[in-house]
From TrEMBL:
<dbReference type="GO" id="GO:0016020">
    <property type="term" value="C:membrane"/>
</dbReference>
<dbReference type="GO" id="GO:0046872">
    <property type="term" value="F:metal ion binding"/>
</dbReference>
<dbReference type="InterPro" id="IPR036400">
    <property type="entry name" value="Cyt_B5-like_heme/steroid_sf"/>
</dbReference>
<dbReference type="Pfam" id="PF00173">
    <property type="entry name" value="Cyt-b5"/>
</dbReference>
<dbReference type="InterPro" id="IPR050668">
    <property type="entry name" value="Cytochrome_b5"/>
</dbReference>
<comment type="similarity">
    <text>Belongs to the cytochrome b5 family.</text>
</comment>
<feature type="domain" description="Cytochrome b5 heme-binding">
    <location>
        <begin position="1"/>
        <end position="72"/>
    </location>
</feature>
<keyword id="KW-0408">Iron</keyword>
<keyword id="KW-0479">Metal-binding</keyword>
<dbReference type="GO" id="GO:0020037">
    <property type="term" value="F:heme binding"/>
</dbReference>
<keyword id="KW-0349">Heme</keyword>
<protein>
    <recommendedName>
        <fullName>Cytochrome b5 heme-binding domain-containing protein</fullName>
    </recommendedName>
</protein>
<dbReference type="InterPro" id="IPR018506">
    <property type="entry name" value="Cyt_B5_heme-BS"/>
</dbReference>
<dbReference type="InterPro" id="IPR001199">
    <property type="entry name" value="Cyt_B5-like_heme/steroid-bd"/>
</dbReference>
């Protein structure tokens, strides 16, 4: 999470959901909820908020290319 926290700017946005690290920099303009919905959680874990609005298949279906890794020590609960 320490590394993820460094990526918290509009031109460098990483977000964690369910133990998965995603680089969403290139996805901001494509996000149906708008860029700010992602930017509000840049450099942080957005799992709780993600779960309120999305089903688990959203990331594998619409943004699998954004996945760049996983958080060490966290269980990944998304299936790809």
């Amino acid at each position: 999470m320490e590394e993820v926290a460094k990526h918290n700017k509009k031109d460098d946005v990483w977000v964690v959901v369910k133990g998965v690290v995603m680089d969403l920099t290139g996805f901001l303009d494509d996000h149906p909820g708008g860029a700010n919905a992602i930017l509000n959680f840049s450099g942080r874990d957005a799992t709780e908020e993600f779960e309120m609005l999305h089903d688990d298949e959203v990331i594998p279906k619409y943004a699998p290319a954004t996945v760049i890794g996983r958080v060490k020590g966290q269980e990944v609960t998304l299936e790809f």
